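subagent[fold] <- orchestrator: predict structure for attached chain, return tokens only, no commentary.
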Amino acid sequence: MLRLLSYVASLALVTTVLVLGGGGTAQADGCYTWNRTLSEGASGEDVRQLQIRLSGYPGYGAVLGLDGQFGPATRAALVRFQQAYGLGADGIAGSATYSRIYALQDDDCTPVNFSYAELNGCNSDWSGGRVSASTARANALVSMWKLQAMRHALGDQPIRVTSGFRSVSCNNAVGGASDSRHLYGDAVDLGAGSHTLCRMAQQARNHGFNGILGPGYPGHGDHTHVDHRGSRFWSASSCGI
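subagent[fold] -> orchestrator:
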């Protein structure tokens, strides 16, 4: 009996270490594991990884920089994320924040409700666009995290993706513009489903998309388009945008 109790106690200790990481951080994750608490003033790759997950929480009309520097904008985005999920909104990334992020992502770092395959119906290797395959794929990942934030804000109802990355040949085949953001992997077209096209265009203004095109803009009567272009261009006149 004593040996059994000792064994059970050992298991409990191991479980505690795995869950807390031995230093107060959340459990290890198949995608990326944060090993320290992050707050304003911190810098590094772990901050940049956090910023990717927070990219959908920059506030109305804003875009969060993914520069690995934990400044006021990152803190504000973190507070919005914490508020959205009912966490203590202290602007400090610790165990509770990491645990929520781990629950929201798959082992390939995509958010649980979106996938690389969903954002690339063109080819399997992300090649042939205006940027390298790795950059196109990385841009798509940021889009997915922005869409995940938007999905949560819209009541966790599905968002239907109709187009994502396109190579030059794929873009030409569908009659896309020669400078389409789809060629960079940072554009996504959304079809009506759980939400109207206008509802999605309106909501997208809060989630870090510099480009929003929808009903009322030429050629966008059947979808809402969002992207990461360098400066803001929103046009969906039928939606009041």
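orchestrator: received. Logging for downstream: The two ends are 71 Å apart (CA to CA). The helical segments are 2-20, 45-54, 72-84, 95-104, 133-153, 168-173, 197-204.
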